[in-house]
Write a structure and sequence with these properties.
Elements (H helix, E strand, L loop, with lengths): L3 E8 L5 E9 L2 H10 L7 E7 L2 H6 L8 E2 L1 H12 L1
Antiparallel strand pairs: 1-2, 1-3, 2-4
């Protein structure tokens, strides 16, 4: 099975957006488990997730992988992917 970049979005228990995690995985459910096992989801509630397209995944900086990205990080990532 090929790995893909998966983007999982998380929220606080009160419903406010908390951040997102980009992780390499074969399927969404495994990415969610990896985020939980490695503490990347910080105990937050899962909102949604999906695969990042191959062209976009290649542009994601290594320092933005495998950690919780806050709104500032996601803004920077958006700027990278739009250029």
């Amino acid at each position: 099975m090929d790995c893909a970049s998966i983007l999982d979005k998380y929220r606080h228990p009160d419903g406010r957006f908390a951040g997102a995690v980009v992780i390499e995985s074969t399927v969404l459910v495994i990415a969610r488990m990896q985020a939980t096992v490695f503490g990347l989801d910080d105990g937050l509630d899962f909102m949604s997730g999906g695969e990042v397209g191959a062209a976009s995944a290649e542009q994601i900086p290594e320092n933005m992988m495998d950690r919780l990205l806050d709104e500032g990080d996601l803004y920077q990532l958006q700027q990278i992917l739009l250029t």
